[in-house]
Amino acid sequence: MNSHQTIRLAVIDDDSGFVTVLAKRTEAAGWQQRTQSAPIPPEELVAMKLSALVVDPSVLGDDAWEYLERVCGGLPDLGVVVCTGRSTVAQRVRGLRLGIDDWVTKPCHPEEVIARIESVSRRRRRSRPGAEAGPVVTGELEIRADRFQAFVGGNSLDLTRREFELLQLLSDASGQVLEREAIYQRVWGYAMAHGDRSVDVFIRKLRQKLEKLSPGWSYIHTHFGVGYRFDPECSEDARATAPASDGKNAASQTVHSSFTAA
After folding, report:
1. Cα 205 from Cα 199, distance rounded (Å)
2. Domain 129-252 adopts which CATH fold?
3. Which of 58, 125, 164, 250 is the least crowded, having the fewest Cβ atoms under 10 Å away?
4. Pick from 183, 181, 205: which is nearest to 260 by CA?
5. Looking at residue 41, what DSSP letter applies?
6. pLDDT of residue 240
7. Are 209 and 141 in contact (CB under 8 A)?
8. Per CATH, which fold does 8-127 belong to?
9. What pLDDT is recorded for position 201?
10. pTM of the entire predicted model
11. DSSP class of residue 103?
C-alpha cells in the first residue's frame, strides 16, 4: 500500500469487528482514524480537517439521507464512502447522485475499503490545484474554486457541490462543446446509464441560478443531441446599458483552462 500521503479518516459504524480490523490496517498505513458509532455533527467534521469519511447509513437511523445530504452539500472537499450491508440499486444511485463518492457493500475486505478511500482522496487532491489558481472571472460571473462557489456582484449563486463541479468543468473548457457522456463521466465519476437525464436536469438548475443573478448574460449553450458549451454572451440590451470599459475588465475576464474534456 502506498502510504506516503497521511489520510485523516473518520468512521461512523457500530460493526465492531469491521471497525477493529480497519483501524489496524489504517494504523499500519500511518493514517489517523477516529471511530464513532453515532453521527458526527457536520461542524465537528469540518474542525477535524478530514480527508475522508466512511459511514454506514444503518447507524444513522431514519435521518440517514438527511445527514448524508448535509455532509455532502456542506463539506464539498470531503470524500465520502458508504460502507454498508445489502442495499438496492435505487439506494446506491440516490446516494451517488447526492454526492457520495463511493459505495461498498458488506461483507467486504478492509483492504478494498482502504483502496477506495485512497482513490477518493487522490481524486480530491487532483481537484485542489485549481483552487490555488485564484478566482476566474468571466462575464459577470466570478468562480471561486477555493470556496466551491460562484458569485455575481458579490452575491453567491448558492450552488450545490454537484452544480459547482458542473459549472467548473464547463468553464474550464470554455468555448468547447462537451458531450453529455463526457460531462457525466467527469462530474459523476462513472459511466452514464442509457436514458439518464441527470446532466440536463443539473444544467437547467444551473441556468436558473445564473439567470436569476445575471439576467443580461447567457453562459451555457445547448448543442442538441450532443451536449453543452460554456461561452458567456452579453445580450444586446445589457450591452447597451453597460458602462464603458477601460480595458482592465477584459484582461481579467480570462477563463482558466487547466483541463478539457477527454
Report:
1. 10
2. Arc Repressor Mutant, subunit A (1.10.10)
3. 250
4. 183
5. P
6. 59
7. no
8. Rossmann fold (3.40.50)
9. 94
10. 0.51
11. E
